[in-house]
Amino acid sequence: DSHQANSAKENVTGSVDITDEQPKATATMSQVPFETDTELNKNSLAREKDVFHISQREMEAHQANLQHLCRICGGSLKADPYKKHHPVHGPVDEETQALLRKKEKRATSWPDLLVKVFKIDVRCDIDTIHPTHFCHNCWKVIQRKVSNAPHEAHLLEKDPVEWHPHSTSCDICVTFRGLKRKKTMLNSQLSKKLKIIAGHTRKIRRIRKEKQQNNKSLMKKISNCKQIHLSTKILAIDYPVDFVKSISCQICEHILADPVETTCKHLFCRVCILKCLKVMGSYCPSCRYPCFPTDLVSPVKSFLSILNNLVLRCPVKGCYEEVFLEKYCQHRSNH
Protein backbone atom coordinates (compact mmCIF):
# COMPACT_ATOMS: atom_id res chain seq x y z
CA ASP A 1 0.00 0.00 0.00
CA SER A 2 2.79 2.42 0.86
CA HIS A 3 4.45 1.66 -2.51
CA GLN A 4 1.22 2.52 -4.40
CA ALA A 5 0.88 5.79 -2.44
CA ASN A 6 4.42 6.88 -3.36
CA SER A 7 3.87 6.14 -7.06
CA ALA A 8 0.63 8.17 -6.99
CA LYS A 9 2.48 11.14 -5.45
CA GLU A 10 5.15 10.95 -8.18
CA ASN A 11 2.47 10.97 -10.88
CA VAL A 12 0.79 14.02 -9.36
CA THR A 13 4.13 15.86 -9.06
CA GLY A 14 5.01 15.04 -12.68
CA SER A 15 1.69 16.31 -13.95
CA VAL A 16 2.12 19.54 -12.00
CA ASP A 17 5.59 20.07 -13.54
CA ILE A 18 4.20 19.50 -17.03
CA THR A 19 1.37 21.98 -16.52
CA ASP A 20 3.85 24.57 -15.16
CA GLU A 21 6.16 24.18 -18.18
CA GLN A 22 3.35 24.58 -20.74
CA PRO A 23 2.49 28.25 -19.91
CA LYS A 24 6.22 29.11 -19.85
CA ALA A 25 6.72 27.59 -23.28
CA THR A 26 3.61 29.34 -24.59
CA ALA A 27 4.80 32.69 -23.19
CA THR A 28 8.24 32.19 -24.72
CA MET A 29 6.74 31.35 -28.13
CA SER A 30 4.41 34.36 -28.00
CA GLN A 31 7.31 36.71 -27.15
CA VAL A 32 9.51 35.57 -30.08
CA PRO A 33 7.40 37.03 -32.95
CA PHE A 34 6.82 40.27 -31.01
CA GLU A 35 10.55 40.76 -30.45
CA THR A 36 11.22 39.88 -34.10
CA ASP A 37 8.69 42.49 -35.31
CA THR A 38 10.25 45.13 -33.05
CA GLU A 39 13.72 44.37 -34.40
CA LEU A 40 12.46 44.55 -37.99
CA ASN A 41 10.81 47.91 -37.33
CA LYS A 42 14.01 49.23 -35.76
CA ASN A 43 16.07 48.00 -38.71
CA SER A 44 13.69 49.57 -41.26
CA LEU A 45 13.73 52.89 -39.38
CA ALA A 46 17.51 52.79 -39.23
CA ARG A 47 17.68 52.13 -42.99
CA GLU A 48 15.29 55.03 -43.70
CA LYS A 49 17.41 57.34 -41.53
CA ASP A 50 20.57 56.20 -43.35
CA VAL A 51 18.95 56.88 -46.74
CA PHE A 52 17.81 60.33 -45.57
CA HIS A 53 21.29 61.20 -44.25
CA ILE A 54 22.94 59.91 -47.42
CA SER A 55 20.64 61.97 -49.66
CA GLN A 56 21.17 65.02 -47.45
CA ARG A 57 24.94 64.51 -47.56
CA GLU A 58 24.77 64.10 -51.34
CA MET A 59 22.87 67.38 -51.72
CA GLU A 60 25.33 69.19 -49.45
CA ALA A 61 28.26 67.75 -51.42
CA HIS A 62 26.56 68.72 -54.71
CA GLN A 63 26.01 72.29 -53.48
CA ALA A 64 29.64 72.47 -52.31
CA ASN A 65 30.79 71.29 -55.76
CA LEU A 66 28.70 74.01 -57.42
CA GLN A 67 30.65 76.67 -55.49
CA HIS A 68 33.78 75.66 -57.43
CA LEU A 69 32.18 76.12 -60.86
CA CYS A 70 31.51 79.16 -63.06
CA ARG A 71 27.80 80.01 -63.42
CA ILE A 72 28.25 81.01 -67.08
CA CYS A 73 30.78 78.69 -68.76
CA GLY A 74 30.79 75.85 -66.19
CA GLY A 75 34.58 75.95 -65.87
CA SER A 76 36.39 75.17 -62.62
CA LEU A 77 37.16 78.22 -60.48
CA LYS A 78 40.10 76.31 -58.98
CA ALA A 79 41.67 75.93 -62.43
CA ASP A 80 41.17 79.63 -63.25
CA PRO A 81 44.66 81.03 -64.02
CA TYR A 82 43.61 84.47 -62.71
CA LYS A 83 42.61 83.00 -59.31
CA LYS A 84 39.68 85.42 -59.22
CA HIS A 85 35.92 84.98 -59.24
CA HIS A 86 32.93 87.29 -58.95
CA PRO A 87 29.44 86.93 -57.37
CA VAL A 88 26.48 86.73 -59.74
CA HIS A 89 24.38 88.87 -57.36
CA GLY A 90 24.96 92.36 -55.99
CA PRO A 91 26.60 95.50 -57.41
CA VAL A 92 29.34 95.39 -60.04
CA ASP A 93 32.96 95.97 -59.02
CA GLU A 94 34.58 99.42 -59.20
CA GLU A 95 36.46 98.74 -62.45
CA THR A 96 33.32 97.60 -64.26
CA GLN A 97 31.33 100.49 -62.75
CA ALA A 98 33.88 103.00 -64.07
CA LEU A 99 33.69 101.42 -67.55
CA LEU A 100 29.87 101.48 -67.51
CA ARG A 101 29.87 105.18 -66.59
CA LYS A 102 32.40 105.92 -69.32
CA LYS A 103 30.24 104.14 -71.91
CA GLU A 104 27.03 105.65 -70.41
CA LYS A 105 25.53 102.20 -69.80
CA ARG A 106 22.58 101.93 -67.44
CA ALA A 107 23.30 98.55 -65.76
CA THR A 108 24.68 98.81 -62.21
CA SER A 109 24.36 95.27 -60.82
CA TRP A 110 25.66 91.91 -62.01
CA PRO A 111 22.17 90.43 -62.68
CA ASP A 112 21.37 93.36 -65.04
CA LEU A 113 24.71 93.02 -66.82
CA LEU A 114 24.62 89.23 -67.19
CA VAL A 115 21.18 89.43 -68.82
CA LYS A 116 22.45 91.97 -71.36
CA VAL A 117 25.73 90.22 -72.19
CA PHE A 118 24.94 86.49 -71.92
CA LYS A 119 21.10 86.51 -71.90
CA ILE A 120 21.23 84.71 -68.51
CA ASP A 121 18.73 85.74 -65.81
CA VAL A 122 20.29 84.84 -62.45
CA ARG A 123 17.47 86.40 -60.40
CA CYS A 124 15.57 83.10 -60.55
CA ASP A 125 18.59 80.97 -59.60
CA ILE A 126 18.28 78.24 -56.96
CA ASP A 127 21.34 77.63 -54.75
CA THR A 128 20.99 73.84 -54.98
CA ILE A 129 21.02 73.96 -58.81
CA HIS A 130 23.10 76.98 -59.87
CA PRO A 131 26.61 78.17 -58.93
CA THR A 132 26.77 81.58 -57.24
CA HIS A 133 29.99 82.89 -58.87
CA PHE A 134 31.49 83.30 -62.33
CA CYS A 135 35.12 83.12 -63.44
CA HIS A 136 37.46 85.97 -64.33
CA ASN A 137 37.56 84.84 -67.96
CA CYS A 138 33.81 85.49 -68.28
CA TRP A 139 34.39 88.80 -66.45
CA LYS A 140 36.85 89.76 -69.23
CA VAL A 141 34.21 88.86 -71.82
CA ILE A 142 31.83 91.30 -70.09
CA GLN A 143 34.51 94.03 -70.10
CA ARG A 144 35.13 93.63 -73.84
CA LYS A 145 31.42 93.48 -74.60
CA VAL A 146 30.81 96.72 -72.68
CA SER A 147 33.83 98.28 -74.42
CA ASN A 148 32.28 97.30 -77.80
CA ALA A 149 35.45 95.41 -78.72
CA PRO A 150 35.44 93.85 -82.24
CA HIS A 151 34.54 90.15 -82.52
CA GLU A 152 33.06 90.17 -79.00
CA ALA A 153 30.53 87.58 -80.10
CA HIS A 154 33.31 84.98 -80.36
CA LEU A 155 34.92 85.75 -76.99
CA LEU A 156 33.06 83.02 -75.11
CA GLU A 157 34.40 79.73 -76.46
CA LYS A 158 31.25 77.74 -75.68
CA ASP A 159 27.57 78.40 -75.03
CA PRO A 160 26.43 79.18 -71.47
CA VAL A 161 25.86 76.02 -69.43
CA GLU A 162 22.38 74.73 -68.61
CA TRP A 163 22.17 73.61 -64.98
CA HIS A 164 20.00 70.73 -63.75
CA PRO A 165 18.98 69.46 -60.28
CA HIS A 166 21.13 66.79 -58.59
CA SER A 167 20.36 63.20 -59.61
CA THR A 168 21.87 59.72 -59.31
CA SER A 169 23.76 60.25 -62.58
CA CYS A 170 24.87 63.82 -61.80
CA ASP A 171 27.80 64.83 -64.07
CA ILE A 172 29.03 67.45 -61.60
CA CYS A 173 29.41 65.08 -58.64
CA VAL A 174 30.87 62.28 -60.82
CA THR A 175 33.53 64.68 -62.13
CA PHE A 176 34.45 65.92 -58.64
CA ARG A 177 34.89 62.31 -57.45
CA GLY A 178 37.67 61.98 -60.04
CA LEU A 179 35.76 59.80 -62.52
CA LYS A 180 35.52 60.47 -66.22
CA ARG A 181 32.23 61.81 -67.53
CA LYS A 182 30.31 59.32 -69.62
CA LYS A 183 27.51 60.03 -72.04
CA THR A 184 24.96 57.24 -71.67
CA MET A 185 21.80 56.66 -73.62
CA LEU A 186 18.76 57.70 -71.62
CA ASN A 187 16.13 55.05 -71.17
CA SER A 188 12.47 56.00 -71.17
CA GLN A 189 12.18 55.97 -67.36
CA LEU A 190 15.17 58.30 -66.83
CA SER A 191 14.01 60.55 -69.67
CA LYS A 192 10.59 60.79 -68.03
CA LYS A 193 12.22 61.64 -64.69
CA LEU A 194 14.29 64.42 -66.28
CA LYS A 195 11.18 65.84 -67.95
CA ILE A 196 9.40 65.90 -64.56
CA ILE A 197 12.39 67.66 -62.95
CA ALA A 198 12.59 70.19 -65.81
CA GLY A 199 8.85 70.83 -65.56
CA HIS A 200 9.18 71.33 -61.80
CA THR A 201 12.03 73.83 -62.34
CA ARG A 202 9.97 75.76 -64.91
CA LYS A 203 7.05 75.81 -62.48
CA ILE A 204 9.29 77.25 -59.73
CA ARG A 205 10.55 79.96 -62.12
CA ARG A 206 7.01 80.84 -63.19
CA ILE A 207 5.91 81.09 -59.55
CA ARG A 208 8.91 83.31 -58.75
CA LYS A 209 8.15 85.56 -61.72
CA GLU A 210 4.52 85.90 -60.63
CA LYS A 211 5.73 86.63 -57.10
CA GLN A 212 8.04 89.38 -58.41
CA GLN A 213 5.14 90.95 -60.33
CA ASN A 214 2.91 90.75 -57.26
CA ASN A 215 5.67 92.33 -55.16
CA LYS A 216 5.93 95.17 -57.68
CA SER A 217 2.20 95.94 -57.50
CA LEU A 218 2.33 95.60 -53.70
CA MET A 219 5.21 98.10 -53.51
CA LYS A 220 3.21 100.59 -55.58
CA LYS A 221 0.35 100.26 -53.09
CA ILE A 222 2.76 100.73 -50.19
CA SER A 223 4.30 103.88 -51.68
CA ASN A 224 0.83 105.31 -52.53
CA CYS A 225 2.39 108.42 -54.08
CA LYS A 226 0.17 108.95 -57.11
CA GLN A 227 -1.09 112.28 -55.75
CA ILE A 228 2.32 113.70 -54.78
CA HIS A 229 4.77 112.42 -57.44
CA LEU A 230 4.82 113.33 -61.13
CA SER A 231 4.05 110.88 -63.92
CA THR A 232 6.52 110.42 -66.79
CA LYS A 233 3.58 111.10 -69.14
CA ILE A 234 3.94 114.87 -68.61
CA LEU A 235 7.47 114.94 -70.08
CA ALA A 236 7.40 117.49 -72.89
CA ILE A 237 10.11 115.75 -74.93
CA ASP A 238 9.89 112.23 -76.31
CA TYR A 239 12.94 110.85 -74.47
CA PRO A 240 14.32 107.34 -75.18
CA VAL A 241 12.75 104.54 -73.13
CA ASP A 242 16.01 103.71 -71.31
CA PHE A 243 16.51 107.35 -70.37
CA VAL A 244 12.97 107.58 -68.99
CA LYS A 245 13.61 104.47 -66.88
CA SER A 246 16.86 105.95 -65.56
CA ILE A 247 15.09 109.08 -64.26
CA SER A 248 12.14 107.10 -62.84
CA CYS A 249 11.71 105.56 -59.40
CA GLN A 250 11.93 101.76 -59.64
CA ILE A 251 9.10 101.38 -57.13
CA CYS A 252 6.40 103.85 -58.18
CA GLU A 253 7.71 104.44 -61.77
CA HIS A 254 7.14 108.20 -61.40
CA ILE A 255 9.77 110.89 -62.03
CA LEU A 256 12.28 110.72 -59.18
CA ALA A 257 11.38 113.01 -56.27
CA ASP A 258 14.14 113.65 -53.70
CA PRO A 259 16.13 110.77 -55.24
CA VAL A 260 18.40 108.49 -53.24
CA GLU A 261 20.88 105.84 -54.38
CA THR A 262 21.40 102.41 -52.78
CA THR A 263 24.67 100.53 -52.35
CA CYS A 264 23.79 98.49 -55.45
CA LYS A 265 23.41 101.75 -57.48
CA HIS A 266 19.61 101.68 -57.89
CA LEU A 267 17.62 104.93 -57.67
CA PHE A 268 14.37 105.51 -55.79
CA CYS A 269 12.25 108.33 -54.41
CA ARG A 270 13.26 108.76 -50.77
CA VAL A 271 9.68 108.37 -49.48
CA CYS A 272 9.05 105.23 -51.57
CA ILE A 273 12.20 103.34 -50.57
CA LEU A 274 11.82 104.19 -46.87
CA LYS A 275 8.22 102.92 -46.85
CA CYS A 276 9.19 99.69 -48.62
CA LEU A 277 12.18 99.05 -46.34
CA LYS A 278 9.92 99.45 -43.33
CA VAL A 279 7.18 97.13 -44.60
CA MET A 280 8.97 94.55 -46.79
CA GLY A 281 12.39 94.22 -45.15
CA SER A 282 15.94 95.51 -45.48
CA TYR A 283 16.78 94.68 -49.08
CA CYS A 284 16.81 96.51 -52.42
CA PRO A 285 13.40 96.13 -54.15
CA SER A 286 15.13 95.79 -57.54
CA CYS A 287 17.84 93.17 -56.92
CA ARG A 288 17.19 92.06 -53.29
CA TYR A 289 20.71 93.05 -52.24
CA PRO A 290 20.86 93.91 -48.49
CA CYS A 291 19.94 97.58 -47.99
CA PHE A 292 19.31 99.74 -44.92
CA PRO A 293 18.06 103.34 -44.54
CA THR A 294 21.56 104.38 -43.40
CA ASP A 295 22.99 103.12 -46.74
CA LEU A 296 20.96 105.59 -48.82
CA VAL A 297 22.94 108.48 -50.35
CA SER A 298 22.21 111.31 -52.78
CA PRO A 299 23.10 110.69 -56.44
CA VAL A 300 26.01 112.53 -58.07
CA LYS A 301 25.48 116.24 -58.87
CA SER A 302 25.65 115.70 -62.63
CA PHE A 303 22.65 113.36 -62.45
CA LEU A 304 20.70 115.80 -60.26
CA SER A 305 21.45 118.55 -62.78
CA ILE A 306 20.04 116.43 -65.63
CA LEU A 307 16.99 115.60 -63.53
CA ASN A 308 16.25 119.23 -62.63
CA ASN A 309 16.56 120.30 -66.28
CA LEU A 310 13.90 117.89 -67.52
CA VAL A 311 11.24 119.72 -69.52
CA LEU A 312 7.66 119.07 -68.34
CA ARG A 313 4.37 120.12 -69.87
CA CYS A 314 1.89 121.51 -67.35
CA PRO A 315 -1.17 119.18 -67.34
CA VAL A 316 -3.57 121.91 -66.14
CA LYS A 317 -6.34 122.42 -68.70
CA GLY A 318 -5.77 125.52 -70.81
CA CYS A 319 -2.13 125.97 -69.68
CA TYR A 320 0.16 123.29 -71.18
CA GLU A 321 3.17 125.52 -70.57
CA GLU A 322 6.60 123.87 -70.72
CA VAL A 323 8.69 124.33 -67.56
CA PHE A 324 11.81 122.78 -66.02
CA LEU A 325 11.34 120.23 -63.26
CA GLU A 326 13.09 122.39 -60.64
CA LYS A 327 10.60 125.23 -61.31
CA TYR A 328 7.52 123.03 -61.72
CA CYS A 329 6.28 123.32 -58.10
CA GLN A 330 6.47 127.11 -58.25
CA HIS A 331 4.58 127.09 -61.56
CA ARG A 332 1.80 124.84 -60.19
CA SER A 333 1.38 127.04 -57.10
CA ASN A 334 0.46 129.95 -59.42
CA HIS A 335 -2.61 128.07 -60.75
List descriptors.
single chain; 50% helix; Herpes Virus-1; elongated; two-stranded antiparallel sheet; 335 residues; disordered N terminus; two-stranded antiparallel ribbon; mainly alpha
Helix and strand run: HEHHEHHHHEEHHEEH
* Gross CATH architecture of the domain at 223-333: 2-Layer Sandwich
Largest sheet: 2 strands, antiparallel
CATH superfamily of the domain at 223-333: Zinc/RING finger domain, C3HC4 (zinc finger)
Question: What is the gist of this entry?
Answer:
The protein is mostly helical and 335 residues long.
Can you tell me about this structure?
Among the domains are: 46-147, no CATH class; 223-333, Herpes Virus-1 (2-Layer Sandwich). It is built from ten helices and six strands; from the N terminus they run H-E-H-H-E-H-H-H-H-E-E-H-H-E-E-H. It has a two-stranded antiparallel ribbon. The chain has a two-stranded antiparallel sheet with strand order 3-4. Strand 5 and strand 6 (322-324) form a beta hairpin. Residues 1-37, 44-54, 150-155 and 178-186 have low confidence and may be disordered. Helix 6 (188-223) crosses helix 8. Helix content is 50%, strand content 5%. The protein has 335 residues and is mostly helical. The longest helix has 65 residues, at 2-66. It catalyses: S-ubiquitinyl-[E2 ubiquitin-conjugating enzyme]-L-cysteine + [acceptor protein]-L-lysine = [E2 ubiquitin-conjugating enzyme]-L-cysteine + N(6)-ubiquitinyl-[acceptor protein]-L-lysine. Pfam families: RAG1_imp_bd, zf-C3HC4, zf-RAG1. Residues 1-26 are annotated as: Disordered. This is V(D)J recombination-activating protein 1. It is an enzyme of class 2 (transferase).
